[in-house]
Amino acid sequence: MTAQTPPAPPFRDPRLPFAKRIDDLLVRLTLDEKVSFLHQFAPAVERLGIAAFRTGQEALHGVAWMGPATVFPQAVGLGASWNTDLVRRVGEAVSKEVRAMRARDDRVGLNVWAPTVNLLRHPLWGRNEEGYSEDPKLTSAIATAYTRGLRGDHPVYWRTAPVLKHWLAHNNETDRATSSSSVRPRVLHEYDLRAFRETVEAGAVAGVMPAYNLVNGRPNHVSPYLREQLRTWTEEELLVCSDAGAPSNLVDHEHYFATHEEATAAALLAGVDSFTDHGTDSSQIIARVDGALARGLLTEKDIDTAVRRHLSVRFRLGEFDPHDDPHAGTAEFDTPAHRALAQEAAEQAVVLLKNDGDLLPLAPDARIAVVGLLADECKLDWYSGTLIHRCTPLEGLYERFGAERVEFAEGVDRVRLRLADGAFLHVPPAPAAADEARGAAGALDPALLAGRTDLPPLTTDATGTEFALADWGEGVLTLRAPDGRYLSVAEDGFVRAAADQPGGWVVQETFRLEPHENGHLLRHLGTGCHVSVAADGVKVAAENASILELVIVERGTDAVARVAAAADAVLVVAGNDPHINGRETEDRTTLALPPHQERLLRAARAANPHTVLVLVSSYPYAVDVAWLPAVLWTAHAGQAAGTALARVLAGDVSPAGRLPQTWYASDADLPGLLDYDVLGARQTYLYFEGTPLFPFGHGLSYASFCYADLATEVAEGTLRVSFTVANTGDVRADEVAQLYTRAAEPSVVRPRRELLAHRRLTLAPGERTLLTFEVPLSAFEFWDVARGGRRREPGPYDLLAGASSTDIRLRTTVVLDGEPTAPRPVTSASGLEPADFDEQSGVAIVDRTRTAGDAVTPADGGTGQLIYRNSDFGTGTTEVTVGVAGRGTLELSLDGAPPLAVLTLDEPTRDAYTYTSLTAPLTADGVHDLHLELHGPLRLAHVGFSG
Fold first, then answer.
1. Contacts of 84 by beta carbon, 8 Å cutoff, 6+ apart
2. 761: CATH
3. Would residue 86 count as lying in a domain?
4. How far is 305 from 905, CA to CA, in rounded Å?
5. Are residues 223 and 156 in the same domain?
6. How confident is residue 861, by pLDDT bands cut at 50, 70 and 90?
7. Is 243 assigned a catalytic role?
8. Using one digit for the tens of pLDDT, what is the confidence trace for 604-642?
9. pTM
10. For the domain that residue 224 is a member of, what is the CATH number?
11. How many domains does the chain have?
C-alpha cells in the first residue's frame, strides 16, 4: 500500500466475518440503493465497485435457458435412481457448468433455482417431472444430495447458491395462482414441511421460492410459515425469492390486498427478500417499495433485513473475494466425465416394472422392431438446457445391436390435407440462407426456433406435402414435414414448417382437427384460431377458416404391425412430449395412455407376442400390463437416454431404478386434484388402501437378492437396524434395499408403512454385504394435534426390510417408549384450535387473519363436520364461547348424540376477518368425542369452554 492508496473498506476485508462485512456495506449503501437490491435484477453500485447481480438461474437437471449444456435425466428420473451419491455428483457437475458458463456469459446466474422439493402427491400434476418423489424422506434425501453438489465442499465459499422450490403444498397447475391448498396441521408437519425442513437442516440451501398458490386461504408469498418454520431451521441467512409475477398476483389475481404497496410490504415483512416481477424492469417494484415506505408500511430497518439476506448469498458466492474464491476459475463444461455421468444417471433411472419369461435382456442376435412416437425422440422439457449430444432409443439400439438388426416404424399417421378445390397444403422448400440459419440456431434452445419468420409460409399445390401426424391424446396433434420440421405459428400469424420440437411457454406447434361439414377445421391451439388459406400463404385467423379433408396415406398401426411381425422382439416406445398434455401451467386429465399410442401397442402385440412396452414419460400411467411380457419405465433421461436404454435392454446394465411414486391402476383410485389432505383422502403409498398397478419403491432386476440376519438395537435416542443382502443371481447388479416402519397399535391414523432409510448398492454374483442404518427415534414421532406438537407414542413398531414398499423380505417388531396418549384438554385457557381436528368432512382451512392463524369453514359454503377425539371436559363445563365471522350456524354435540348447543350468527360480520363472540350454555364433563357441524359461510376461529 502506498500513501496514495486508501485502505480497503471493511466489507472488502476477507479476514473479517461475513456478518461484520455486511454490516459495513449496509451502512455505506443509500436507501435507494438498498431498495434497488430487492428486485431480481439488482443493479451495480459503481461508486462502491459492486457489480450487478441477478437471482435465479434454472438448473433443475442441468443448466437451463442459457444454450448448450449437459442435459441429465429429469428430476423424477433422478428420484427413480434412489441414489444420493449419484445425485450429489450430478449437482456438482451442474454447478461446475454454471460457473464455466458464467465465466463467458454474465447473464448466467450463480443463485440457482433448484431443486424442486414439492412432493408428488398427485400423479396428474403437470409438473410431476420436476419433483423427486411422493415420499418426504426420499425427496429430502435426494434434494439434500443435489444441493450439496450444487453448493460444493468448500467450508466458506459456495460454488452456486441453491434455492428450493416451491414453498408450500403446491401440486396443481389448475388455477394455481388462485387455488388454496387446505392442509391440516398433521399433513403440514408430517408431509409438506418435512421435505423442506430436512433439506434445509442439512446445511446446503441458500433459500426458498414461495409457490403461486395459497395455503389455508393465505398466499404463500405472505406465509407466516416462512418466519415460524423456515427461518428457525438454520442459523444461515436464507434468501426468499418470489416466483415470477407472484408479487403482482397478490393484487391482480388473488385480490388479497387492495394495493400493490400493501402487498409488497406484506410480502417483505413475511420474509420475501427478492421480487421476481416485470422481467428486467425493476422500476415498478422499486416504486411499490418506495410507496410502502412513504405510507409507513415499511421502515428502512425492514429493507435492511431483506438486503442483508441478499448480500449474505453474494458474500458466500465469493463475489467480494475474487482472489480467494476457489471456484472462480472453474472451466469444466461438457467434459468426458460429465458425459459419462449423464449416461450413468440415465442408466440408473430405468425401472423394470415387469419381466415375465426370458424376453429381457434381449438376445444378442435378436431381430428387433422399434416402434412408437418416442422411439426416435430425445425430448426436452421446459427446464432443460439445449442438447450438445443426443441419443434416441432408436439410435442407441442401432449402436448396440447394429442397424441391420433393427427395424423402425414411428407409428404416426402419414396424411395430406386437401382443400375443397382439390389443392393440398404444401411446404415450400427453405431458401439456402434459411437452412444455414437453422444450423446456426442449433446453439439455441429448440423452443426459440418456433418464432422464425425467415422461412416461407405454407402454400398449396396439386400434390401437397405428406405430413407425419402425431396424436398426443385429448385431440392434441402435431404435424411434421418430411424434413423433420414441425408446423408452427410465428407472431405474424403464418404457418411454417419451422420448429425442431414443440416447445415454449405457449406451445405454437399443436393443433386440433374439428369436424366441420364434410371435412375438418384445423385449430391452432397456441392462438385459438383456425388455419386459413389466403393469397399470401397459410395463416391462422379469427375468420375465413379453411375446410380441410384429411387424406390418410398410411396408418401408423399398419406400419407398426408390418415391422413387428418380422421381428424376434418388439419394443413399443410410448409416453409423453413434456410440452404437451401435462406440463407447467397444465395438469393432466387422466392416467390413461393416449388412445393412439394404445392402438399402436395393441397392433404390435397382436402381430408379435414378444412385445415390450417402454414408457418414456414425465409421470405414471395406468396401463393394462397383464397381456404384456415386459414393461420398463424411464423419465426423459437427457442426452444419453438412448444409449442407457439400449444397454439396459441388452443386459449390459441390470436395471435397478425404483418407482419414486405410486402407479395407480385407474383414475378411480385418485383423489381430487385439489384435495391436499393425504391423510383423510388416503393418498400416496403412506395411506392408500387399494391395490396399485405398481407400488412405491417397486423395480425389478436381472439378478436376484436374498435378505437375511435382521437385527435391531436401541441406544441413546437411535435405533440401529442391520441386515445382510446377497446377490444370488448370475450377473453383477445394483439392489435398492429399503427399510420401512409402521406403528402396530396406533391411537390415531398412521401411515400403513413409511420409509425410514434406503441404500443403493452394487453386488457381484455371490457377494454379500451387511447394511446398517442409524435411525433417530424422532423418525417415529407424529404431529399430535391434541398437544400441538410432535410426540412418539409408546408401543410396538414393525420394521420391514425389503425391495419395495410391498416386497418385504424381513420383518421384526421393536417396542419403543414415549409419551402416552392423553385426552385433549379443551377446557384449558387456550381452548380449542378448530384446525386441530382429528377428522373432517366438507371443511376447508382458511386464514384467520391476513398475517397469521387458521380458521375453518364449510368448503362449499354448505355444511362441514369436524371431530375432535378424546376431548377432556374435566370436572365439568357450563358454557361454550366461539369466535366466528361471516354468517351461519354452529352445532356442538358429544359422541354423535343430538346437539347440546346451537350458536347462530344471523347478521353477517363486516368482512371475513371481523370476528365476534357467541356464547351458549353447554353442560359436559369427562372425556368425549366432540362433534362440530358448521352450516353456511361461517368461519370458526376459536372454541373455548368454561365452568
1. 141, 142, 144, 145
2. 2.60.40.10
3. yes
4. 43
5. yes
6. confident
7. yes
8. 999 999 999 999 999 999 999 999 999 999 999 999 999
9. 0.96
10. 3.20.20.300
11. 5
